[in-house]
Amino acid sequence: MQTKRWRRTLVASMLAMALVASACGDDGETDTTTTDTTTDGTDGGSEPATAPGFDGETIRLGVITPTTGPVAVIGNPLTAGNQVRVDAINAAGGIAGKYPIELAVEDSAYDAPTAVQKYTSLKEDVVLFAQLLGTPIVSALLGELETDNIVAQPASLDSFWVREDNLIPVGGPYQIQAVNAMDWWVNQEGNADSVICFAGQDDPYGEAGFEGMEYAAEQMGFEIAADVRFAATDTAAEAHAPNVQRLAGAGCEFVFLTGTPSNSGALLGASAGGGFTPTWVGQSPTWVNALAESPLAPYLAAYYHVMTDGAEWGDASIPGMAQMLDDIAAHRPDQTPDIYFVFGYAAMMAVEQVLEEAVALGDLGRDGIANAMSSIETMEFGDLFSDYGWGPAADRVPPRVSRVFGIDPEAPEAGYFTPLTEPFASDVATAYEF
Amino acid sequence: MRTRGAAPDLVTDYAQDLRLVPNGWTAAGLLLLAAIFVTGPNLFSGFWVVVLGYAGVATIGAVGLNLLTGFTGQVSLGHAFFLGIGAYAAVQFGMNWGLPLFLWLPLCGVMGAIAGAVIGPFALRLRGQYLVIVTLGLVFLGEHVFKEWRSLTGGGTGTAVRPPLTLGPLDFSGMELFGTAYNRQQMLFWLIWAVAAIGILGAKNIVRTRPGRAMQAVRDRDLAAEVIGISLTRYKVGAFAISSAYGAVAGALYGALQGFVSPTEWNLFLAIQYVAMIIIGGMGTVFGAVLGALMLTALPRLIEDVSRRVDMPFVSGDKGGPEGFVTIFSVQRAMFGALIVGFLLFEPRGLAAIWLRFKAYLKTWPFSY
């Protein structure tokens, strides 16, 4: 009887402590009554009033990104890119030299419902979201962003974001990458008669790539012989055996891939194992440097290509790249070449421009940010990424430029990429309507 | 509560035994809860209001599952399926057909009841672990159906859930009340807990009257129950129907609270969470289901909170950064498993039993031992 009693007491006291600890947990949080910002109405020289996420001194920005899980290989470097740019801005005093930035990072694990919950807990405490990673996450949150009148930077290249007032898209969209890839394969390399196929994630991101493919198929007059979808969480090579069978069975000679590193790596591994050797072109988020360091490297060197926007790492002749390399040396010297870092850095440059404009207009509240968004004419990245024609969402002109890279496992200093083309904007891409 | 010289705290007739509010202490406790309910959004920070909203949803679902598993003895791992049905019924009736709140919410319950009634007959043929396997299959069937039914559920993309939320003068998607503006999460806190209170009252009433006694008889010895004239068909199928109705209402409110649902959410882990709630809370009592739901909704948040402040060994993604071979996610899930096993070993009657022992200790003080 005694032993049973002490066990029960132990369990009971542990539970009691847990409940007490949870009660003491987060009660010091700011309360949720929405503070309406009173705008001074004047511009230039007046201090912006306090607003959600801005206490008069520091600007707090939200970041919802996968810091754990299979997509963390994109989330972590991208956030590092955000952080280095923030460190550089803060070293110069902050936005307008006065207001340092603070990033509040939350883990979404690339799961839309988790991201929605994190968004809800963060939204009252931030000026805007500097990063929402993942097409599915951005799709899920778009309605909330509109209702709450909050602006966010989508770390995703769906063309859908171009016409959204609440989003700060950066870079050539996935659809453009797909169209340019098909232009390279069909027109430039002259393979109009080959069997062309598509493999992609079964979510909005996969849909985006497929949309671009369909448009290209229509305009260039080829057919998509096979369309294979897989779950974002299919990160084991065995899960892709049926996919490889379908692609090989359809006789695919070219496959356009819209995946993320873990599932793409698994699919490529399954293909290598099954002796399936088409020409692969993957969207930019399919890549991670670890692939070139894995046993898959020879297969990738022979058959894999990546479409991306953006300058070559280390090319100091490009002003944006030179600035980025300086900031890396100052704040994160052991950063290895990584395309996601570049994206995060460039995305923060865009956010920086929005914040600077908002401070210049004297309002960091929800409406102030919205006004700042429509007042900017061009988003500039010092050629790190192509310039983005800005303004109200209906007037935006996204870049149409992409570049085809092959894989060179012997070139870690270039991020294992070797350019096969110059940056180009195909005619079909230029005609793409958003 | 005893006055000097009065009779000890004994129950002397059936009516007294069945009373919902047997004494002054219970009444005081209920008043306190009502006060917390009314002032909730002002009392708690935004983050905890949302957590309590999710806890309310879990309470409704757990109370329903408890009616099925705890009172009728039909162990079901399929509760996630009925939650999913509720959420998508909310999308269809609320969003697509535009029915008002007082229509679409009960209709979601009705859809759940219909689904439960269809599954119920399996319980007539199968017992114990075989029924569990069938309900397990239900979850996977549901996952597949939800994923394929793109027009309703959005497939892999998921769908926004924004049904109309007005009830008379109250607009639960956000309104001003007595000078303070309340946002959607705060208004829904009230709606969810009001519905939860109705659900708990309903469950208590089922349990303390004839159907409840019949269900408990079915749980204890269904063959003997049939012999004495309790219709197994009626009570087993009925239990499934009612529990699924509760689950569907919970799912609908979950969708409304979150604003977005994805077919991958109605998975085995969710079903296990609900079973964990009723095991940990206490399987044969309504109060236990509520306690279990509250605790298991707060626990993952607590773990997350702790991980942000403390560098836990072996855990990646916490304050110490990305080193570590288990993620916080895995820690949360491991906790569920550990709690289920721990409670089954050391306190099979759950938190409710702990609470009852605590009450008994106080009642018999200073003669408690």
Describe it for me?
The complex is a heterodimer of chains A (434) and B (369). Chain A has two domains: 59-171 and 315-395, 3-Layer(aba) Sandwich (Rossmann fold), CATH 3.40.50; 174-308 and 403-431, 3-Layer(aba) Sandwich (Rossmann fold). In chain A, the strands form three sheets. In chain A, strands 6-5-7-8-9-12-13 form a seven-stranded mixed beta sheet, sandwiched between helices. In chain A, strands 2-1-3-4 form a four-stranded parallel beta sheet, with helices on both faces. A two-stranded antiparallel sheet of chain A has the order 10-11. Chain A has helices at 2-25, 72-91, 112-122, 135-148, 174-188, 204-220, 241-249, 261-273, 289-292, 297-303, 319-331, 339-361, 366-375, 427-431, and strands spanning 59-65, 101-107, 128-133, 152-155, 196-201, 224-230, 254-258, 279-282, 304-308, 378-379, 388-389, 403-407, 417-419. The longest helix of chain A is centred in the N-terminal third of the chain and has 24 residues, at 2-25. Chain A contains 14 helices and 13 strands. Chain A is α/β, with parallel strands linked by helices and 434 residues long. Helix content of chain A is 43%, strand content 15%. Mean pLDDT of chain A is 86; it is low at 24-45. The termini of chain A are far apart. Chain B starts with 13 loop residues before the first helix and ends in a 5-residue tail after the last helix. With 369 residues, chain B is mainly alpha-helical. Chain B has a domain at 44-266. In chain B, a hairpin with a 2-residue loop joins β4 (175-177) and β5 (180-182). Chain B has a two-stranded antiparallel ribbon. In chain B, strands 2-3 form a two-stranded antiparallel ribbon. A two-stranded antiparallel sheet of chain B has the order 4-5. The radius of gyration of chain B is 21 Å and the shape is globular. Residues 1-6 of chain B have low confidence and may be disordered. The chains are: A alpha/beta (434), B mainly alpha (369).
